[in-house]
Amino acid sequence: xxxxxxxxxxxxxxxxxxxxxxxxxxxxxxxxxxxxxxxxxxxxxxxxxxxxxxxxxxxxxxxxxxxxxxxxxxxxxxxxxxxxxxxxxxxxxxxxxxxxxxxxxxxxxxxxxxxxxxxxxxxxxxxxxxxxxxxxxxxxxxxxxxxxxxxxxxxxxxxxxxxxxxxxxxxxxxxxxxxxxxxxxxxxxxxxxxxxxxxxxxxxxxxxxxxxxxxxxxxxxxxxxxxxxxxxxxxxxxxxxxxxxxxxxxxxxxxxxxxxxxxxxxxxxxxxxxxxxxxxxxxxxxxxxxxxxxxxxxxxxxxxxxxxxxxxxxxxxxxxxxxxxxxxxxxxxxxxxxxxxxxxxxxxxxxxxxxxxxxxxxxxxxxxxxxxxxxxxxxxxxxxxxxxxxxxxxxxxxxxxxxxxxxxxxxxxxxxxxxxxxxxxxxxxxxxxxxxxxxxxxxxxxxxxxx
Length: 451
Prior knowledge:
By secondary structure, the protein is of the alpha+beta class. The chain has two domains: 10-62 and 301-450, no CATH class; 104-263, no CATH class. Helix content is 48%, strand content 16%. Strand 7 (180-188) and strand 8 (194-208) form a beta hairpin. It starts with 9 loop residues before the first helix and ends with a helix.
């Protein structure tokens, strides 16, 4: 370690390094400009890249399924036993992850104050929708999804139970798991009038934060089909196969028989990637189906996301390396021009460690200032951009009340990446300064002065 251990104290070397920084204003200005501009550009690009990704992820998990395409039966297939004869063909399309048969209906649930009708969807075992559920208590349906169970949203609890008496520290959602919910399943006459209603008690299996659209509950698909077959029965062919307590099945064979009818009223096609959605829509359109997808509501965000990945990301990498090269070149040139001065320092007693430490401290000081200036500039530009897009969102809402496009959301807050950028810039600057500092410290003073 002889020669590499600094002889002067940390305080003396620090003051000397700061003095050197301000004694070379041209090189200081070049480093500050390159870092300020580079950090600002990288920050803005990262804000857009992360912001759009967060926006799309939030849209996919908060009521919209951007990777899903829904189709209804063609008019010529509605009277057939198989309402979707091209099911296999659609399943084999490029980019299709899964195709799920669906049936949507209305279920009447008895709450603690009144009976309310809710849109219901049946779920299958290993259903793709489960990946989009945020459970606060409980879990998915049991077994083959054919038991008298129910999954509800947090918002539905207030309609079903009196939650005002719950503790001050918040609602314990696990308290409701296993409780019974009364469902009224109607029966109609041949003329379509209500004949009677059968009460069935479903066990709460799971509670989720949010459901799709205006839906608040889900049923196991088989249970869902039995209820619908019971509603459609005008000749009392299928009595409801429940036990006396009305909370479990009494005849499993009859359940299977009741669920066996052409029940599919839609197909939901799940794409593997977001980029596969539009090709899938084109493919099913050629088969004569009118595709429905939430992707049209967020097409602008996907376009920005595609631009961010194809343009902003490469630019960010390019700018990053450009900043490294610029900082390295400035530090190296500065050290090269000061070779005689550094040689004289060596002659009067400075060790190699003193020179290296001084160079690193001066670079550290310059990089910190340049990075903070860059982060400050990017924060100002991002806030101004968000304010401008917020005004545009409000103007769109004035002309179209259904517009919910929060354009300002494409900018992610700087708190998500500012600390990382700061330390990466600092590490980059120190690494860039290390080689010139070591090279200058190893120079032979006699050779430098002779030349």
